[in-house]
Amino acid sequence: MNHIKWRSLLEILLVSTRLGLTSFGGPIAHIGYFHEEYVRRRKWLDERSYADLVALCQFLPGPASSQVGIGIGVIRGGVLGGIFAFIGFTLPSVIALILFAYMLKDLEFTDAGWIHGLKIVAVVVVAHAIMGMAQKLTPRLTGKSIALFALIAVLLSQTAFTQVGVILLSGLIGYFVFTTKQKETESIQTTVPVSRKLGLYCLILFAGLLMVLPILKGTFPASWISLFDSFYRSGSLVFGGGHVVLPLLEREFVPVGWLDKESFLAGYGATQAVPGPLFTFAAYIGAVIGGWQAGLLAAFAIFLPAFLLVLGALPFWQSMRLNSKIRGALTGVNAAVVGILLAAFYHPIWTSSILTSIDFAFAAVLFSMLAFWKLPSWVIVLVGAIGGWALALF
């Protein structure tokens, strides 16, 4: 591998690690952070390609924001780029949660002022991302109407099934309503350095593990097989992001006595306090059950389906995007994603973060720093944490 390739991979690792250290606020906020860093600042993807990648990952089960990050890494640097992007974004919170499992799981830190400041930062980042995406993805009245439909539906029925149904229906509407000109399709080409053969192997491996692991679990009594199966299945069958996987993990491990309710809730609080994907909660559970080795195994198992699905889908992504009918369906899905992001922006992000007029004023200052003064995201995170801590003193 030549020097330029390694330099590109190192850049992917460094950028994703910085995001892994500063991306607070959950999956919807992560999409905003990625948009700011990868699209606005570095221009690794254009607006349309990023929106289509987000739409693709919304279709796939698993942690959508992590899959978007993996996809960007794959597009930028191939399979190794995807691995580096995943490691950088995920490892900081995995390490933090394993340490919490050893030392801090019983501490009351969820009401700390700096945590509240970081929640306000999430409001700002998501608002900025939605504004930019809405301008690009819903220029016509039909798209705005689909976004409004998605917003209302998701707010009235806040389940993963509603979200998936809204995306499917919006795609169907877009398939029949939107038409894409040839020049538009020519301008959206994105190179994906992964062969269709490898993609097919990844999809086969994903399905094979889903079927074989329960058989192995029943045949061999090894605890690590049971652990791997539980986390792999949870990562394979969840739509809607990290918040949805938490109750599934509770049902997998608390009733059977692998860990008690108090330890589970302490870990949940720790997960809310650290940056990065919520799926890293698996690392905490694994560490409580079997030490840091089990923590790393749990994190690997719960994210493996997401990685296999992204690698499996991306090689077919470009040809689907160039088909005019599929392009229309993606246009409908993109409009729906704007509505879904708006719904998530209100609840839980806004409702859990903007509690007083002072919070709103602080959010306005942070938004101005990001949108008008063009300061880097890490500066906004730092100011948000310090400001939240200072506000808590009054």
Automatic annotation (TrEMBL):
<feature type="transmembrane region" description="Helical">
    <location>
        <begin position="114"/>
        <end position="134"/>
    </location>
</feature>
<keyword id="KW-1133">Transmembrane helix</keyword>
<dbReference type="Pfam" id="PF02417">
    <property type="entry name" value="Chromate_transp"/>
</dbReference>
<dbReference type="InterPro" id="IPR014047">
    <property type="entry name" value="Chr_Tranpt_l_chain"/>
</dbReference>
<feature type="transmembrane region" description="Helical">
    <location>
        <begin position="296"/>
        <end position="317"/>
    </location>
</feature>
<keyword id="KW-1003">Cell membrane</keyword>
<protein>
    <submittedName>
        <fullName>Chromate transporter</fullName>
    </submittedName>
</protein>
<feature type="transmembrane region" description="Helical">
    <location>
        <begin position="377"/>
        <end position="393"/>
    </location>
</feature>
<feature type="transmembrane region" description="Helical">
    <location>
        <begin position="12"/>
        <end position="33"/>
    </location>
</feature>
<feature type="transmembrane region" description="Helical">
    <location>
        <begin position="329"/>
        <end position="346"/>
    </location>
</feature>
<feature type="transmembrane region" description="Helical">
    <location>
        <begin position="231"/>
        <end position="249"/>
    </location>
</feature>
<feature type="transmembrane region" description="Helical">
    <location>
        <begin position="146"/>
        <end position="178"/>
    </location>
</feature>
<keyword id="KW-0472">Membrane</keyword>
<feature type="transmembrane region" description="Helical">
    <location>
        <begin position="269"/>
        <end position="289"/>
    </location>
</feature>
<comment type="similarity">
    <text>Belongs to the chromate ion transporter (CHR) (TC 2.A.51) family.</text>
</comment>
<keyword id="KW-0812">Transmembrane</keyword>
<feature type="transmembrane region" description="Helical">
    <location>
        <begin position="198"/>
        <end position="219"/>
    </location>
</feature>
<dbReference type="InterPro" id="IPR003370">
    <property type="entry name" value="Chromate_transpt"/>
</dbReference>
<feature type="transmembrane region" description="Helical">
    <location>
        <begin position="82"/>
        <end position="102"/>
    </location>
</feature>
